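Pasting as-is:
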Amino acid sequence: MTAPLTPPNRPSSDDHHDWQKPGPGGEPGGPAAVYGSHLAPSPGVDREELRADLRRAGIVTAVVTVAGLLLGLLWLWLAPRVPLISDNTAVFLNDSEGEEAIGADGTFALLGLAFGAVSAGLVFLFHRRGGIWLTVGLAVGSVLGSLLAWQLGTRLGPTSDVVAHAREVGKGVVFDAPLEMHAHGVLLAWGLAAMVVHLGLTAAWGPREFEGEWASYGGWGPGAPSAPSSGVPSSGSGAPSSDQA
């Protein structure tokens, strides 16, 4: 009986553990080092990304806030007027059954919803990546823009001194009441619409960061780095056969 033959390509014990040895400079080698480089991003890169996100959020906040000027002008133009009349002793509603008083609030709410949808769509169009800071900037800008629109509309509208205005126009002359907002909750219409539309667009057409980056972690996914072969032959390729005995 002859001794079993040694496989010609059988690696030595030193070769088998080469990939486990530390790399140059004492750094670990092998798959752990490869995967660790992906799982541990550089702190400098994180700070740069944070600054970029904050810069984009600041720009969005400023632009959306300035858009409140347009909302205020549209509200002043489209809101129904409340007609008043004076008899030189008191000021009365010219139409006591009219709904113009609540029409101003409804007009502001509808304009706020429209501005919220448009602003969210534009933000998503220019910054498809999204992010929490961009969403916060959009929300803050929407609230500030609504406040700016409210103040602009009331200041540019009819004077709030109704008595002086009645004396100026004279007895029996119909004049407009000051533009007022009775339900201050409509100031949130812009922000709520912007949040809903932006989150919906991001969920539907936003980039899939999980598939692009995290899919390669842990050794799986199309972009995953392959671990070096240990050099150990498979059970069927390197084992001596019974014919060699």
